[in-house]
Amino acid sequence: MPVARPASPQTSAAAPLAAALLLVASLGGAAWWTAESLVLSQSVSESRTVADLVENVGRWASQYGGVHVRTVGTDARIPGSFLTRAVYAASSGDAGLLSGTRSGQSGVEHDAMQRVEAYHWKNPALVQREVADVIAASGSKARYRLTARTVLNTSNAPDAFELEAMDALQAADGQRREYWTQRGGRLLYARAVVAQKSCLTCHASAAQAPEFLRTNTQFNGGGGFGYVEGKPVGVISVALPLPSTAQALAGSVPGKAWAALAAAAAAVLALAWALRRGAARR
User: Does the global pTM surpass 0.70?
Assistant: First the structure.
């Protein structure tokens, strides 16, 4: 019958040392994965905040039927893109001069022209896009845009991620309003856009669209129609840079926590030294 041999001192010392090292590695791994999860969770929360901003800007503009930007004088700078423009004389006297019902010197007519007021109409979607341009120009890390499968303005055509997001949201059949993924060091987030009644003025059908949309080449992107109130029509797309897990740990773990981790590592090293020393004496 075989006789059991007692474990060597080295084997007796190695078991608790391995357990201690496994504990420290497990704690380190848990901290790392927790930091990864927190980075993703915070970035998704920031993306939701941006999407909320976009929706609220659209609601604000919609309650007024869009926004009119006023300029004065024929030399005024055109305020970016707009859908329609209405021009008015500043007074009935100026209107008479400019319509030719009254005669006057060219200098007087020139002065009247400098008082002409123009109102450039921007619909809610255009307002949202211009806010996106302002955010991008400010140097903000966040970027957003609105897009759909087919668009009036080809500048708003969807990219690969946005098509992927719309496919995923469509497959969820209304059970899901948002989609995100990590790609190239960024969080890419998309939220479904639901058509409101105000959207139908321009997007119900090409036949019913206002003439300025049908005749303006900027808004003839080959699509952007067929909207149905209450149905998803596109997405708000948000892109945010993702900080690395190491950066998140360095920036979010307080000094006391680092001190505690250092103390734990020192305790493991002391335990290893004590076990080796005890094994050497046996």
Answer: yes
